[in-house]
Specification:
The protein is mainly alpha-helical. The protein has two domains: 3-43, no CATH class; 77-148, His-Me finger endonucleases (His-Me finger endonuclease fold, 3-Layer(aba) Sandwich), CATH 3.40.1800.10. Helices cover 68% and strands 6% of the residues. The protein has eight helices and two strands. The protein has helices spanning 3-13, 15-28, 30-43, 45-58, 60-76, 80-89, 124-132, 137-148; strands spanning 108-111, 118-122. A two-stranded antiparallel sheet has the order 1-2. A hairpin with a 6-residue loop joins β1 and β2. The longest helix has 17 residues, at 60-76. The chain starts with a helix and ends with a helix.
Length: 149
């Protein structure tokens, strides 16, 4: 068995030791490694673009999931899993109309635009209704009174 094959087998058999060694090495040489990495990135912008493009093609689903997760955190401060838990707590129905049909674009996370606090999960129609009313309680109250005529 050649030396590289033996080394590979040893690393696979001793994964934790290998990880610990590499982590210690990185911690000890962090500044030097950062400088080398930064210099390489500055010298190879086209190669970086090529590598990123290939990664996105090879990992399309992973990329979409990551983008969705980032958007949820940025827009609502919750993860997609937390939104799913909220929907489950609502018995998989809209928090307003209790419909079990989410609409063409799926379920919507309803949140207060001034405080950013998430209020619940809505179907597409109820989400549009609140949006068109600009989350204004008096407008919605007047609409209810109007419907009662």
């Amino acid at each position: 068995m050649s030396s590289p094959e033996y080394q590979q087998q040893w690393r696979e058999a001793n994964r934790e030791k290998t990880r610990a060694y590499r982590a210690a090495y990185r911690a000890k040489n962090r500044a030097e490694l950062y400088e080398k990495q930064t210099a390489w990135k500055e010298a190879n912008p086209e190669r970086i673009k090529e590598l990123k493009a290939r990664w996105y093609v090879e990992n399309r689903e992973k990329s979409r999931a990551s983008s969705k997760r980032s958007a949820f955190m940025r827009n609502y401060g919750i993860t997609p899993e937390q939104a799913e838990q909220m929907l489950e707590a609502q018995d998989f129905v809209c928090a307003i109309c209790t419909s079990d049909a989410p609409g063409q674009k799926g379920w919507h996370v309803d949140h207060c635009h001034s405080s950013g606090k998430v209020r619940g999960i809505l179907c597409g129609f109820c989400n549009l209704m609140l949006g068109y009313a600009r989350d204004n309680k008096s407008t919605l109250t007047k609409a209810v009174e109007y419907l009662g005529r």
